[in-house]
Specification:
The protein is an alpha/beta fold and 338 residues long. The chain has one domain: Glycosidases (TIM Barrel), CATH 3.20.20.80. Strands 3-4-5-6-7-8-9-12 form an 8-stranded parallel beta barrel, surrounded by 6 helices. A two-stranded antiparallel ribbon has the order 1-2. Strands 10-11 form a two-stranded antiparallel ribbon. The longest helix has 17 residues. The protein is globular, with a radius of gyration of 18 Å.
Length: 338
C-alpha cells in the first residue's frame, strides 16, 4: 500500500483489531510438487507470461488481504474472497520489524486455506514499505529463508513477493542494488518459488523496472522472477500512465502484474475501468487493494463492507468484482486445481 496508508494503518489497526490470532484446523502437510513442462517445479516465468506447474498460462485476478493486522479474520475472509471468483489472494505478513511476526505455522495454515479454496497465495512482508534502507530488505529475505519450509513443496501454489513496496524514493538504482543482493541468497537457501518484485517509489515507479528489471531478473539463478506495479493516483491515474508503466516492462520482455490498485486515493483518482480493461486485453494480472480493514481516512479502499463479503462497497467492490472486466467475468482457475 502506498505512503499515506502505510503511515496511517498502525493507528487504524489499534482502533480496528478486535481479537487475537485464530486459525482453522486444516492440515499443513506439504505435498510433492508437480514438475512443470519447463523442467522445473511450480510456476515459471516465460518472457512476459507466467506459466503454472502444468505449463499453462496463469493470469492473476484477485484481492489483497491484510492478514497480519487482522489475524482473527482469516477463517471468514479467505473463503469470502474465494467466493468472488478470485484465483489468487495476496497476503500481508510481518517479519517482526514493525508488527507482530507471523510464524511458520500460521503461514502454512494460510497457504492450506488458500489451496483448499483453489486460490494461489502470493505472500509478502509489509514491514519495509516505503523504506530506503537496504537492511529492511535483507531482513525480509532472512525471514523468508527462516520460513522456507512453508514455501518448499508449495512451488505449485505459492508465489513469493519478497517485500511490499521497498524503496519509497523514485530511485531505480537503489532498488536494483537491493534485489540483486537478496535474490541469489534466497535461491541459495533452496527456495524455488517464482519471485515477485514490487517497483520502487512505493510500488508506483514502473520506470525502475523498465530501466533495471533485466538486471534484477538476471540476478536470479533460476530466471524465475516477475514484477509488480502498484497503481494509485501516480501510476494509475490515466490511460497514458497505465500503458506507459506496463508497456515499459513488457517491452523489455519481462513479466508484470498490477499487484495493488484502488479506484481512487489521496494522490489522485485512478482510472480503474481502463486499467482492468487493459489488463484483460493484454493478459496481465491484477490484484485489488484490499478486502477490508483500511483505516485512518482511507476506508474507501475496502472492497467489502463486511468480512464475509455479504456486502460489497458500492464504488470499489462492485466494480472490481462484478464489473465488465472484473474478477467474476475474467478470472480463470489455475490448472493445478483441475
Amino acid at each position: 500500500m502506498k505512503k499515506l496508508l502505510a503511515m496511517l494503518l498502525p493507528l487504524a489497526i489499534v482502533i480496528s483489531m478486535t481479537g487475537c490470532s485464530g486459525s482453522d484446523s486444516s492440515s499443513s502437510e506439504t505435498q510433492t510438487p508437480v514438475s512443470s513442462s519447463a523442467g522445473q517445479y511450480g510456476f515459471k516465468v516465460d518472457g512476459t507470461k507466467l506459466l503454472d506447474a502444468n505449463g499453462n498460462e496463469f493470469v492473476m485476478r484477485g484481492i489483497n488481504h491484510a492478514h497480519t493486522w487482522f489475524k482473527d479474520q482469516n477463517i471468514i475472509a479467505i473463503p469470502a474472497i474465494a467466493g468472488t471468483g478470485s484465483n489468487v489472494v495476496r497476503l500481508v505478513l510481518s517479519d517482526g520489524q514493525q508488527w507482530e511476526k507471523d510464524s511458520l505455522d500460521s503461514i502454512k495454515t494460510l497457504i492450506d486455506q488458500c489451496r483448499e479454496r483453489e486460490m494461489i497465495a502470493v505472500v509478502e512482508v509489509h514491514d519495509g514499505t516505503g523504506m530506503d534502507d537496504a537492511d529492511y530488505l535483507e531482513k525480509a529475505a532472512d525471514y523468508w529463508i527462516e520460513m522456507k519450509d512453508a514455501l518448499i513443496g508449495n512451488e505449485d501454489y505459492v508465489i513469493l513477493n519478497i517485500a511490499n513496496e521497498w524503496v519509497g524514493q523514485w530511485d531505480g538504482r537503489l532498488w536494483r542494488d537491493g534485489y540483486v543482493s537478496v535474490i541469489p541468497k534466497i535461491r541459495e537457501a533452496g527456495i524455488r518459488n517464482t519471485i515477485m518484485v514490487d517497483a520502487a517509489g512505493w510500488g508506483q515507479y514502473g520506470k525502475s523496472i523498465a530501466d533495471y528489471g533485466k538486471e534484477v531478473f538476471e540476478s536470479d539463478p533460476d530466471r524465475n522472477t516477475m514484477f509488480s506495479i502498484h497503481m494509485y493516483g501516480s501510476a494509475g491515474g490515466s490511460e497514458s500512465s497505465i500503458k506507459k508503466n506496463l508497456e515499459g516492462v513488457t517491452d523489455q520482455g519481462l513479466c508484470v502484474c498490477v499487484g495493488e490498485f484502488g479506484y481512487t486515493h489521496s494522490d489522485g483518482d485512478v482510472d480503474e475501468a481502463f486499467l482492468m480493461e487493459y489488463c484483460v486485453e493484454n493478459d496481465i494480472g491484477y490484484i485489488g487493494w484490499s478486502w477490508k480493514g483500511n483505516g485512518g481516512g482511507v476506508e474507501y479502499l475496502d472492497i467489502a463492507s463486511e468480512w464475509d463479503g455479504s456486502v460489497l462497497s458500492s464504488d470499489w467492490g462492485e466494480a472490481l468484482i462484478n464489473g465488465e472486466n472484473g474478477i467474476k467475468a475474467t478470472a480463470k482457475k489455475c490448472s493445478v486445481f483441475e
